[in-house]
Amino acid sequence: MSLLPILEYPHPRLRNVAGAVEAERIADPAFQRLLDDMFETMYEAPGIGLAATQVDTHERFMVIDVTEGRDQPLAFINPVIREASADLRVHQEGCLSIPGVFADVTRPDGIVVAAFDRNGKPFEMRVDGLLATCVQHEIDHLDGKLFIDYLSPLKRDRAIKKLEKLRKQG
Ligand code: GNR
Ligand code: NI
Questions:
Q1: Are 50 and 38 contacting, i.e. CB atoms less than 8 angstroms apart?
Q2: What structural domains does the chain harbor?
Q3: Is 133 exposed, middle or buried (0-12, 13-18, 19+ CB in 10 A)?
């Protein structure tokens, strides 16, 4: 297992739109190793999710674990949001690609997400709360989107200034 380097804003490849994972690739040992490395990288960071885009792999998959015990790893391959609730929730988001910056983002509170698991088996999950926020945040990465894209120009500007300041401080 190994830790993978995480791309940071404003790396241009964070804007790539990821392509589908081909079904035959899921069983490939290299792909399974990549999943293990992404879990290891996410847990070490620590983060509650990690999208392939963030580790410079432009295929549609991500790993998530929002549990306190860090003992419920979830892999989503070719995830699709099937339904999104009309009711919204605000959550203060952060991102391993924009370290040290946090801002409120409003998203649907509940979603139904369909995907394939790491064995290539299709599944559908109805999720809400933090897990729903995280799934949407990760799928955004696969579409080249970042949470700061949802902020007003003023707040986005402040967020980027904060990131630059934190970097200067080391
Ligand atoms: O670790 C993370 N925490 C987080 C908090 C609120 C909303 C989304 C997230 S995801 C983030 C890890 C990350 O950058 N995933 O892409
Ligand atoms: Ni992120």
A1: yes
A2: 12-169 (3.90.45.10)
A3: buried
pTM: 0.98
Q: Is 107 in the pocket of ligand 1 (CB under 6 A)?
A: no
What is the rounded CA–CA span in Å between residue 96 and residue 59?
A: 18
The two three-digit tokens of residue 148, written as one number: 């700061």
84: β partners: 111
Specify the pairing of strand 88-93 against strand 103-108.
antiparallel
pLDDT digits (tens, 9 = 90+) for 119-170: 999 999 999 999 999 999 999 999 999 999 999 999 999 999 999 999 999 8
Is any ligand 1 atom within 6 A of the Cβ of residue 94?
Answer: yes
Q: Position 105: which residue type?
A: V
What span, in angstroms and rounded, lies between the C-alpha atoms of 90 and 106?
Answer: 4
